[in-house]
Fold each of these.
Amino acid sequence: MEKMPKWADVVLIPVISLLLATILSALVILAIGENPIEAVNLMVTGALGSTYGWGYTLYYATNFMFTGLAVAVAFHARLFNIGGEGQAMLGGLGVAMVCLYIPWPHWSIALVAAALGAALFGAAWAAIPAYLQAKRGSHIVITTIMFNFIAAAFLNYMLVNVMRPQGSQDPATARFPEAVHLPTFQSMFSTAENVMFRGAPANISFFVAILACVVVWALIWRTRLGYEIRSYGKTETGAVYAGISPVRITIIAMLISGGLAGLMAINNVMGEAERLVLNSTEGAGFIGIAVALMGRSHPFGVFLAALLFGFLYQGGAELALWTSIPRELIVVIQALVILFTGALDNMVRMPLEKLFLGLRKGAE
C-alpha cells in the first residue's frame, strides 16, 4: 500500500518544496536590504511580462527539457547520469560538423540531420561510462562526471586547433551557412504591424523539445523496452529473474540518455549561437538533474520544471541587471530551489507520509 496518494507525491511535495525555497530566498534578499516583493515582481515582469522575456524563458526551458529528459530516462533505470553537460558539449560538436561540412538546401533537412548528429555524439559519449558500469562495475556517477571534464578539454582542443577559422582569435567555429539557420519565434510569430520576441533566442527547437517529451513518455510507458527499463530500475533481482539483461538495459538507457542530452545542441548551438563556442552549455546539463528530480522523472513534470527553471534563469538575469542584488545571489536562489526540490525532498515527504497514514487510519 502506498504511503501517500500519487497526486501528493507528484504535485504537493514539489509545490511545498518550492514554497519553502521561495520563503528562504525572500529572507536572504531581505537580509541584504532589498525588498523581496519588488524582487519577485521584477523577476516575473522580466521573465513573463513581455514576449522578449518569454523568448528567453522558453529558450532556457528548451535546454532544460532536453537535459531533464536525459536524466529522467537514466533515473528510470536506477542510473544517475550526471554527465549531461559533457554529452551536450559533444552533441554541439556533432551539430557543428553536420552544419559546417555538409551543404544543405533548407533548414528543415539540416535540422533533422543535426538532431541525428547531436544525438549520435551525445550517445557515443555516454556509451563509454555505460559500458564501464555494465561490464566492469565502475560507478556511473564517477565516470560520467569525469567525462564532463574530458569533454570540455576535447572540445577546447577541437575549437582551438582543428575547427577555428584561419586568422580568427576566437576559440569557436565559423558561423553556420544561412541555409541552416533555424526560424526564431520572432520570424515565426511577428507580423508587419506587431513585432514579437524581438531579439530573443527562442526558436523552433522548443517544439522539438516538446516532441521529445511525448516520445519519451511513449517509450517509457507504452513500449516493452520502457517496461524493461522501469522494471530494472525498481528491482534488479526481479528483472533478472524475468529474463531482463542488466548489461543490455544499462547500455541502452544510457545511450538514450546521452542522445537526449546531446539534442540540446540544436537549440543553443544551431538555433541561438549559429556556431559552436566554448561553454555553450552554460551548466544546463547539471540543471537537468534538478529538473528531473522536481519533475519526478515524468516527461510532463520535466516540461513544467523546465519552464520554472527557465523563469528563474531569465528572471534572475533581470534581477541582477536592474537591482543591486549581485549575480552570485541569483545563483544562490537557484541553488535553494534545487536543494529543496532535490536533496531535501525527504524533509517534506516524511511528514506528509505520516499525515496521510494518520488520516487513513482515522478513516478506518
Amino acid sequence: MTAPDQGSALRTTPLHAVHQRAGATLVDFAGWEMPLRYGGERGEHTAVRETAGLFDLSHMGEIHVTGPQAADMLDYALVGHLSKVTPGRARYTMITAADGGVLDDLIVYRLGDEEYLVVANAANAETVLAALSERAAGFGALVEDRSPDYALIAVQGPAAAAILAPLTDADLSGIKYYAGYSHHVAGHPALLARTGYTGEDGFEIFLTPGSAAPAVWEALLESGEPHGLVPAGLSARDTLRLEAGMPLYGNELDAQTTPFEANLGRVVKLDKPGDFVGREALQRVADDGPRRRLVGLVSRGRRPLRKGNTVLLDGAPVGAVTSGAPSPTLGKPVAMAYIDSGADPGAGEAAVDVRGRAEAVDVVDLPFYRRER
C-alpha cells in the first residue's frame, strides 16, 4: 500500500468523498484509492474486537454467473462443490490454475437456482473474470462483470447485529454464518450477508446501485454511535485478519501455492463428480502431501516480524514469514509463515531473522485469536 501519486488515475469507490471528509489517510490499494486509517489503527482494531467497525469494501470484484448450467460450470471452474450450495447460502472457495496454484480465493453466494454471485479480491478481479469466462465455454452459463454496479459495506464486531437491526427489515437472528438474502438496509435494497474477514461476527451489505452507499454508511454510523462504532481502514483490517489466521492473497496465497500448503485443503472437493480445473495436480498434492505448511509464530520479544523474514530452526533456514505485525489483542508480535513440511519445530529452537538478529518465537497452530461464540 503506497501513498497515491497526485497524477495517478486511481479508481475510487462511491464512499470516497465520505472518507475524505472523515480525514482518512488514503493510499493506493490494488489501483484503488482506499482508506488506510481514519485515526489510529490500534483503536480501530480494538473497536472491532470490542464493539464494532465499519469498512468500505467497494473495491472488491462482483461477478454474476447465471443460466441453467451455472452450477455445473462453477463446479468445473472452482475447487468447491458449488452445485450443493442451496439458494441463500455462501461458500468460501478458490479458483486454481491447472497446476493447482491459487489464482484467487473467493466467496460465492447462490442467489437463486440459476444465479450465483462470485466475489473476488480487487487485485485479482480481472483474472477471475477472464478465467471464469474461458471456463464457461460449452456450458449454458453467462459470466458478467457486475462490479461497477455494486458498493459493499461491512459492519464487523460483537455489536454488529445490534447496530444493524434498527435499519433493516431482516430478522438477523435467522441469518446464519455464510448466508445472504435480499433485504433492505436504511431503506435501500441490499444483499445482506453474514460474512466477514475479521474473525468477528458481522455483516456485509451489497448495494445496487452503489450510489446508495453514502446514505447507508451514514445511517450505520448514526445507529452505531451509542455502541462505539468507528470507521476502520485497511490497516486494522489486516491485523484483524492476521489474528484470525485468514490468508491474504499475495502473502499466504498465490499462483505458486496450492490450497493444501495453506492448510485449506478442506475447500478442495476431490470427491465431487466430474472434472474440475486443477483436479489432477491437487490430487497428487493430497496423496503425496504438500512441500511446505503454513504455521503461526508468536514472538518472545518485542520486535515486529515482517513479510520476507527468514524462519530458522536451530539456526538453519526452514521457511519465510508471509504476514506479520504486532497483535493488539495478544500484545505480542505475531506472524504467519511457510515452513518446510519436514521441519519439526518441537525438535529445536525456532527463531526469525529480523535484520540479522535471531528473534526467538513459538510455533503455534492458527488462528491466534478465536472469538467466543
